[in-house]
């Protein structure tokens, strides 16, 4: 059959693009030849804005980057500032941060799985995932007042303590999550249609994945065991016992499976943190107007979407000189073309869903 | 025929009530989910807050099939022409709801690339404040829109097409 | 806190090997806040990056960061400093390379060495106007193509040139 190239425009408004992403596809009948993402439709000028705000004022704006996992952005930024300013965070605060960060990872993966399944057609999984997520969002709302853009981790520690009642609520919520996961797995794991649309689709090998700078669950689905929580631990993660699930084939099915397993591991970490919550302060003494001595630092954490990094340069005043965010989704999206080439264009949606990108993070 | 109808305001009022009752209870949203507010919009449509009890669970992907444009999230200068084109593609009668502080007036971003409010490109009927508004807040905004629709006079627009612009 | 990357003998060794292999390329190196930063001569950038990747095993690039020096006096008077954060996996070692470049000069593109540099360099061009020679398609990435100016430069106003929308 002769090559018949058609240009197809997908987005920026489309029900399956996880935000305002535009994909320019070139297809030969139904097989994808080229994928060129066009981004910038949500560029809000955050980095420029941060140079005009104090270090403390920047923290709530970091929520708006990866808005599905707001607490991890908070954590990434405050850890960088604390490293630069030499602030020592008390142990109780570090444990509470881990509880919040892992609950946020859980919520983010549930949403990501829901969106991926919805794009491929399994709409019930979206509703199950969001229902399970509501329990976690209730906890965030009880903790510091907001469901989504939480701002629950501040420079020096955390704003509120976890009292007995809240700890009991958290235990109750995470005890209910495995049942939801079992429901999702019953629907999808051995489902012929799901497997037909995900196994062997959007494959990326381990070598290519590292070369493209892929990080996070998508990298681990290709079999590469890179998880910052284990390799360069931060905030007392080295005191916890958890596994890092690895995939084999690097296809859409593996990326789906890895996220399910990571939810189970997050529950494990939260239980350990609640059991071993040390006594003490919940925040270091941070001056009201925080002036950081000149210097620069680059700090990374394992956010639910991948390796999130913050480069902070200070000039001695209370406003940062430069804050640059290394966004995992920005780099992960570059490998979309590699994954889509040779597949049908109806698979593009599933592959994009399995990458689990967030445009707020890509466009800053 | 038109004159005789205009001389029977009671019939027109009855027709108005019926038409607006049908419109407000079956709004089909065109979810333009741009940023963080989109997640709360989806949460409103999900099982706990259940927008389906208002008849609005059918989120259309195409503007030609929708009648309520929910602008959820920050509108940037790059996206503004797209929003305008989508609004123009929606057939009458249509309404717009600006969800979240960014859509109302630029939100926390007074920067070079953000449009300071979507009402600079499309006419907005209801503003729902919040960053992001909680699902309860969005539902309150939708109910406010339903009250606004109930107060409108569609028969006047049918009889006099110019009245559409003075709604 | 474990892992102070500067304690790693591999890093000290990397600096010595680099200085030996590319004489004059390493302008300075410093360890601050447990991070190793090396200042390089602009002309040696491409060769050093290939060497670090192929022979010392720094197989991935985290990020490319640009600093605008218009307000500070130092750094040899060049307008921009471009930082390359690279890491080695496994081994979990991080390194920061700094290169100074003037407003009308160009840097060698890192794309032939690290594929993930593609969009990072486009972002540097869009936001600051730094040019990269050898990039497969250097054009704006965030701002619309017809936008004039480079927003993250210190002399560009926050609200935009036309007073914001």
Output the structural class of chain C: alpha/beta
**Low-confidence runs of chain B:** none
Strand tally of chain B, please? 4
State mean pLDDT of chain B (0 to 100 scale): 86
State the total count of DSSP E strands of chain C: 7
Write down the overall geometry of chain C: globular
The parts of chain C where pLDDT drops under 50 for at least 5 residues are 1-6
Instruction: Briefly note the CATH topology name of the domain at 5-104 in chain C.
Output: Beta Polymerase, domain 2
User: What is the CATH superfamily label of the domain at 5-104 in chain C?
Assistant: NADH:ubiquinone oxidoreductase Nqo5 subunit
**Could you say what the CATH topology of chain B is called?**
Rossmann fold
User: Tell me, what is the CATH class of chain B?
Assistant: Alpha Beta
Structural Rg of chain C: 17 Å
- Following the backbone from N to C, one meets helices and strands of chain C in this order, namely HEEHEEEEHE
Please describe what this structure looks like.
The complex is a heterotrimer of chains A (364), B (167) and C (165). By secondary structure, chain A is α+β, with helices and mostly antiparallel strands. Helices cover 48% and strands 13% of the residues of chain A. Chain A is built from 15 helices and 6 strands. Chain A has helices at 46-50, 55-62, 70-85, 91-120, 123-144, 164-188, 192-198, 206-211, 217-220, 228-231, 252-275, 328-332, 336-340, 347-355, 359-363; strands spanning 5-10, 22-28, 31-38, 295-303, 306-314, 320-326. In chain A, the strands form 2 sheets. In chain A, strands 1-2-3 form a 3-stranded antiparallel beta sheet. In chain A, strands 4-5-6 form a 3-stranded antiparallel beta sheet. The longest helix of chain A is centred in the first third of the chain and has 30 residues, at 91-120. Chain A is globular. Chain A starts with a strand and ends with a helix. Chain B has a single domain (26-166), classed as Rossmann fold (3-Layer(aba) Sandwich), CATH 3.40.50.12280. Helix content of chain B is 41%, strand content 11%. Chain B is built from 7 helices and 4 strands. Chain B has helices at 2-6, 9-24, 36-45, 80-89, 101-105, 135-150, 154-159; strands at residues 29-33, 68-72, 95-99, 126-128. In chain B, strand 2 (68-72), helix 4 and strand 3 (95-99) form a beta-alpha-beta unit. In chain B, helix 2 (9-24) packs antiparallel against helix 6 and helix 3 packs across helix 6 (135-150). Chain B is globular. The mean pLDDT of chain B is 86. By secondary structure, chain C is α/β, with parallel strands linked by helices. Chain C has a domain at 5-104: Beta Polymerase, domain 2. Chain C is built from 3 helices and 7 strands. In chain C, helix 3 (117-128) links the parallel strand 6 (106-108) and strand 7 (131-133). Chain C is globular. In chain C, 43% of the residues are buried. Residues 1-6 of chain C have low confidence and may be disordered. Chains in contact: A-B, A-C, B-C. At the A-C interface, helix 1, strand 4, strand 5 and strand 6 of A face strand 3 and helix 3 of C.
């Amino acid at each position: 059959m002769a090559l018949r190239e058609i240009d197809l425009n997908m987005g920026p408004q489309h029900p399956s693009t996880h935000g305002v992403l535009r994909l320019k596809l070139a297809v030969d009948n139904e097989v994808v030849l080229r994928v060129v993402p066009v981004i910038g439709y949500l560029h809000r000028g955050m980095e420029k804005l941060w140079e005009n705000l104090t270090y403390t004022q920047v923290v709530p704006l970091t929520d708006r980057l990866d808005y599905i996992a707001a607490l991890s952005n908070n954590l990434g930024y405050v850890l960088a500032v604390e490293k630069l300013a030499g602030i020592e965070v008390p142990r109780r605060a570090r444990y509470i941060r881990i509880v919040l960060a892992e609950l946020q990872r859980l919520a983010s993966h549930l949403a990501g799985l829901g969106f991926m399944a919805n794009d491929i057609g399994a709409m019930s999984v979206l509703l199950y995932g969001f229902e399970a997520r509501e329990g976690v969002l209730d906890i965030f709302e009880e903790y510091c007042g907001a469901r989504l853009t939480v701002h629950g981790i501040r420079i020096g520690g955390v704003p509120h303590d976890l009292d007995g009642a809240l700890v009991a609520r958290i235990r109750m919520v995470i005890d209910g999550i495995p049942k939801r996961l079992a429901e999702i797995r019953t629907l999808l794991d051995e489902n012929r249609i799901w497997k037909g649309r995900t196994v062997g689709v959007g494959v990326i090998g381990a070598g290519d994945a590292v070369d493209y700078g892929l990080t996070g669950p998508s990298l681990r689905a290709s079999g590469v065991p890179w998880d910052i929580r284990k390799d360069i631990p931060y905030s007392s993660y080295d005191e916890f016992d958890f596994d890092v699930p690895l995939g084999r084939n690097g296809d859409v099915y593996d990326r789906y499976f890895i996220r399910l397993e990571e939810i189970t591991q997050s529950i494990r970490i939260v239980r350990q943190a609640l059991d071993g919550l040390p006594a003490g302060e919940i925040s270091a003494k941070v001056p009201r107007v925080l002036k950081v001595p000149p210097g620069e630092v680059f700090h990374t954490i394992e956010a639910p979407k991948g390796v999130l990094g913050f480069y902070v340069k200070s000039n001695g005043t209370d406003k940062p000189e430069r804050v640059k965010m290394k966004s995992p989704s920005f780099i992960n999206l570059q490998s979309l073309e590699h994954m889509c080439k040779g597949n049908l264009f109806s698979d593009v949606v599933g592959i994009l869903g399995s990458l689990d990108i967030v445009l707020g993070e890509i466009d800053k | 025929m038109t004159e005789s109808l205009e001389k029977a305001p009671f019939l027109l009022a009855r027709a108005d009530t019926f038409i607006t009752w049908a419109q407000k209870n079956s709004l089909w949203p065109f979810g333009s989910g741009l940023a963080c507010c989109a997640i709360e919009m989806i949460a409103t449509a999900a099982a706990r807050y259940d927008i389906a009890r208002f008849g609005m669970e059918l989120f259309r992907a195409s503007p030609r099939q929708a009648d309520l444009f929910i602008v959820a999230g920050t509108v940037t200068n790059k996206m503004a022409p797209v929003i305008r084109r989508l609004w123009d593609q929606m057939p009458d009668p249509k309404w717009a709801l600006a969800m979240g502080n960014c859509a109302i007036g630029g939100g926390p971003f007074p920067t070079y690339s953000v449009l300071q409010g979507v009402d600079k490109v499309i006419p907005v009927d209801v503003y729902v404040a919040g960053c992001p508004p909680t699902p309860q807040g969005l539902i309150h905004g939708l109910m406010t829109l339903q009250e606004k629709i109930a107060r409108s006079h569609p028969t006047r627009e049918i009889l006099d097409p110019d009245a559409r612009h003075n709604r | 806190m474990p892992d102070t990357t500067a304690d790693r003998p591999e890093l000290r060794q990397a600096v010595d090997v680099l200085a030996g292999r590319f004489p004059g390329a390493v302008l300075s190196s410093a360890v601050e806040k447990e991070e190793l930063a090396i200042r390089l001569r602009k002309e040696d950038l491409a060769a050093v990056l290939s060497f670090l990747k192929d022979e010392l095993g720094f197989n991935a690039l985290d990020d490319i960061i640009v600093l605008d020096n218009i307000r500070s006096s130092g750094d040899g008077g060049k307008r921009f400093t471009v930082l390359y954060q690279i890491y080695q996996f496994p081994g979990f070692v991080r390194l920061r390379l700094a290169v100074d470049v003037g407003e009308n000069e160009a840097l060698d593109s890192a794309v032939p060495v690290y594929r993930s540099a593609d969009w990072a360099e486009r972002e540097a061009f869009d936001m600051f106007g730094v040019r990269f020679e050898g990039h497969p398609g250097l054009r704006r990435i965030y701002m619309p193509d017809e936008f004039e100016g480079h927003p993250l430069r210190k002399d560009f106003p926050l609200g935009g040139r036309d007073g914001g929308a």
